[in-house]
Design goal:
Elements: H1 2-6, H2 10-26, H3 30-49
Helix pairs in contact: 2-3
């Protein structure tokens, strides 16, 4: 629902996850790194739990 409301695609959100993980690797602050990793994994897990889109327009 959040993807629908924001107009973002799953690919857009996956890009955000990648950016969070990259930012976690590049920060010297361990607390910030851990927060970024936690957020990235939480978002990634949510994306993984989304149903796969069918290519029938939902008519099945």
């Amino acid at each position: 629902m959040a993807l629908h409301l924001t107009g973002l695609s799953a690919e857009d959100v996956a890009e955000v996850v990648d950016c969070l993980l990259l930012g976690a690797e590049q920060t010297a602050n361990p607390q910030i790194a851990e927060t970024r990793r936690r957020l990235a994994h939480g978002i990634g897990d949510a994306l993984d739990s989304l149903p796969s889109p069918d290519h029938t327009g939902g008519l099945l």
